[in-house]
Structures are given as C-alpha cells and as structure tokens.
C-alpha cells in the first residue's frame, strides 16, 4: 500500500514541467560557472592583453598587450623620439653670432641631430636586449593585483644634463639601488615630445612600489629653454641632477661622437672659430654652446631653487664613483647602498664598471659608444677654448658654490 503511494508521487514530481525547467536551469548554471572559471584561469595568463588594451583606450595610445608593446609601440616610440629637432640653436650668447649659418655649420647640426638620434636608438635597443635577458617571468594579472606590484608614476627625479658629461654612467650606477626605478631610453618628453601629454609620458615609466623613486634622464633638457617651466608645471618638487664636465673636454667628446657617425664632417678646429685669425669662438655650434653652464643654469633658477638641483662632477664620477653616488643617494633621500664594493676600474675603457648590474650577477660596462678615443686637437685651439670658458666657469662656480677645478 505504501509503495503504491510513493511511486505515483515520484512520477508526478519528475514529470512536472516546472520541475524539468528548474533542473535544466540548474545544469545550465553549473556549466556557466565552469566556463567562467576556465575563462578567468586562461585570461590570468595574459595580463597585458587585458590591462594594456584598456589603457590604450583610455590614453589613446597604441598599446595592445605585451607582445604588441615590445614591437609596434616601441617602434612608434622611437619614431616619436626622432620626430622633432633639438632646440639648442635658440640659445643666446654673449658673443656675436652670424646672422646666416655657414653651409658647414648647417651640415654639422644635421649630422649632430642624426648622431643623437642614432645613439638614442642604440641605447634603447641595447636596453631592450638587456632587459629581455635579465627580466624574470611576468606575474599574472591576478597575482600582480594581490602582491601589489606597483604602478606607473611621473618621475620624482630627472637627470637633465649634460650631453657627454657622464649621464648614462650615472643612470646605470643608480639603477643598482633597490629603491630607484628608471626608464632606460631617453624619453625627450620636455623637449621633443611635450605635445604628447603627461599620460603618454607616464606610460613610459617603469612600475614602482611605495617608497621607490621613478627616474629618467635626457641630457638635452639642460639646454632647452622651455624645459624648466614644463618640468615645474608637472611638479615643483621634482629633484634635478646635472652631470657636468670640463667644457673643453666635453666639446671634444661631443665632436668625437659626431665624427664616429659622420667621418666627413669639418675639422674640430674649423668648427670652433668663426675666424681662426681673430680667434673669435663660434658659439652657434652646439658643442660650444652646451658648455656655457652658467647661462643655462640661470634659466633653471627662475623655476627651481638651488637646493633642488644637484651637480655631479663627471671627472669624480670616474675617479671616485662611490663618493659621487653617495652624494646622489643623500640628495634623493635614500640609504647609501651603492658603495665601493659595487665598482671595479676597467683599464681598457678607462672608467669604472659595475661588478654586478641591475638584475644580473655578471659585471657590466657601458657599451662601445662610450669611452671613444678623442682625436688629436691643436693645443693652441684647446688653450683658446679654455680662455673662452674661464669667465663662464668662474660664474658657474659662484652660482653652485663648488669649484670643479677645470681652470
């Protein structure tokens, strides 16, 4: 009697249309949950495709994933870096300048621009190769979120100059410090790419954690008239670092770099003078202009106090790298971690190298574009240049409160 009551009830339960729909919906829900779980697991292995494409929509950039970033975005960055000329030809001088630049000077200026751009590309390519060799596997999107891998910030400190002063060496040395993260290639944002906007600039920066400092270096900022106002507009608290070097040696080094790329340029002597007989220096040549440090510093002091600018000696960076790095670490408010134990002197190149580079256990020296042998220059020309720079050097010593011993 009991069996006959139960069976009909079970049959009625399973045969009910409403119950069938509920069971079917339950099965579909379970399948949907499983598919969602599988999708999340798959997407977490491709963080750049999700995160970077979203950023690309926000900033209008062409970033679509890590693979695209390392190919098309970086090639686009190179083209942007090379798209605008340097503004050095606008710098004023106390000396009379020709109203029309000679053909040789125009050709040389073009050669210098091409040389700088080629060196920018060489540095960027070398940095990319180094990073590919040393970079650990990237974390997934979910693990990055959970472990707090940092975010991209505008730089709090910038190496603003000077060209051929030792800025690349200083940046490579500083990157050993665990609390410093720096972009490898020169962004040239405040001189060539300012129209791209601060968000474009921010995207070039590496991710940093709380307490870490974001840095970049572009030596041409120091001689760019608009750069101080633009950096001040970004942040008045930005700390500025200038690596300076004997302006005569710096000019010869500048010429040597151009000569290595364009061996048919005029001689150093012919470019130095407007008229060799009168001995009048041609200050329209950028290799001469850059070394008039006092005039460029005047422009920066209109926007930044002196205690926000640190001047690093390019000579001491070679003879005592740990001492100069100690000053820089103090200036940045960091613990002195980079010391003598991080360096060894390379006799072949003639300057110090790192025993262990950032992210590597191997010694590291700067590339073949650094430490070129200078051509022989007529001693009379060298002496005339020293006489020309001496009053500017004296003024620079007074402004900075430091005698760099170039005279």
Q: Structural class, please?
A: alpha/beta
What is the averaged pLDDT score? 77
CATH architecture label: 3-Layer(aba) Sandwich
Looking at the structure, the CATH topology is Rossmann fold
Distance between the termini: 119 Å
What does this structure look like?
The chain is α/β, with parallel strands linked by helices and 407 residues long. The protein has a single domain, classed as 3-Layer(aba) Sandwich (Rossmann fold). The protein is 50% helix and 10% strand. It has 16 helices and eleven strands. The strands form four sheets. Strands 3-5-2-6-9 form a five-stranded parallel β-sheet. It has a two-stranded antiparallel sheet with strand order 1-4. Helix 13 (293-300) packs parallel to helix 16 (379-400).
């Amino acid at each position: 009697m009991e069996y006959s009551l139960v069976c009909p009830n079970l049959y009625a339960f399973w045969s009910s249309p409403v119950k069938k729909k509920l069971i079917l919906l339950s099965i579909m829900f379970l399948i949907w949950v499983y598919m969602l779980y599988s999708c999340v697991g798959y997407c977490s292995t491709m963080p750049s495709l999700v995160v970077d494409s979203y950023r690309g929509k926000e900033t209008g950039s062409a970033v679509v994933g890590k693979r695209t970033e390392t190919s098309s975005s970086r090639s686009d960055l190179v083209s942007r870096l090379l798209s605008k000329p340097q503004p050095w030809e606008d710098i004023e001088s106390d000396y009379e300048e020709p109203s029309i630049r000679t053909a040789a000077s125009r050709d040389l200026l073009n050669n210098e621009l091409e040389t700088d751009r080629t060196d920018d590309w060489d540095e960027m390519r070398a940095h990319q190769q180094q990073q590919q060799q040393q970079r650990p596997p990237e974390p997934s999107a979910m693990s990055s979120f959970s472990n707090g891998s940092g975010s991209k910030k505008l730089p709090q400190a910038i190496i603003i100059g000077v060209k051929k002063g030792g800025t690349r060496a200083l940046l490579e040395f500083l990157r050993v410090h665990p609390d410093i993260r720096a972009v490898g290639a020169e962004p040239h944002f405040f001189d060539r790419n300012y129209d791209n906007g601060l968000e474009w600039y921010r995207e070039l920066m590496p991710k940093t954690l709380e307490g870490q400092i974001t840095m970049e270096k572009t030596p041409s900022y120091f001689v760019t008239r608009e750069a101080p106002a633009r950096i001040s507009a970004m942040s008045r608290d930005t700390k500025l670092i200038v690596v300076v070097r004997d302006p005569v040696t710096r000019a010869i080094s500048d010429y040597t770099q151009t000569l290595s790329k364009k061996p048919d340029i005029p001689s150093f002597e012919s470019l130095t003078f407007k008229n060799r007989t009168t001995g009048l220096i041609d200050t329209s040549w950028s290799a001469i202009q850059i070394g008039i440090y006092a005039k460029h510093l005047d422009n920066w002091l209109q926007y930044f106090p002196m205690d926000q600018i640190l001047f690093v000696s390019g000579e001491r960076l070679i003879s005592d790298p740990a001492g100069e790095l100690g000053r820089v670490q103090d200036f940045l408010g960091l613990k002195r971690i980079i010391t003598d134990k991080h360096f060894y002197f390379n006799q072949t190149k003639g300057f110090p190298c790192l025993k262990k580079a950032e992210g590597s256990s191997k010694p590291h020296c700067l590339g073949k574009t650094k430490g070129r042998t200078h051509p022989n220059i007529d001693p009379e020309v060298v002496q005339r240049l020293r006489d020309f720079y001496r009053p500017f050097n004296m003024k620079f010593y007074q402004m900075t409160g430091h005698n760099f011993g170039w005279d």
